[in-house]
Amino acid sequence: MLSDARDSSGICVGNTPILGDDYADVGCLLRQERMKMQERVFSTEAVMLRAFGFVLHVEHPHKFVLSLLLLLGLDGPILQEAWNLTNDRYFTFP
Questions:
Q1: What is the pLDDT of residue 47?
Q2: Any idea where the domains of the chain sit in the sequence?
Q3: Separation CA 94–CA 79 (nearest Å)
Q4: For a designed S-S bond to 25, which of 5, 13, 39, 84 qualifies (C-beta 3.0 to 4.6 A apart)?
Q5: From the centroid of its chain, how far is CA 7?
Q6: How many Cβ atoms are within 10 Å of 1's Cβ, its own excluded?
Q7: How far apart are CA 46 and CA 50, in angstroms?
Q8: What rounded mean pLDDT belongs to the chain?
Q9: Is the pLDDT confidence value at 43 over 90?
């Protein structure tokens, strides 16, 4: 065995573990390979969605509403109502 693919707690470590005498290392390698493949799928999906015109990053309006109301010195029921309206608008309409 050249190197152990697990640390002292039994968790997979390193990017490319080397198989040892234990078959548990195979599971560690398969798990890491699946994670690499999953990352490639997600990256490819993002590229395709951008090519089709989808917007993948959206600024949520809640932080702007909160900042504006606090800047104006408004809080309490007005802040809660603004938050509720922001939720209703954000989650109801396209």
A1: 93
A2: 1-55, 62-92
A3: 24
A4: 5
A5: 26
A6: 10
A7: 6
A8: 77
A9: yes
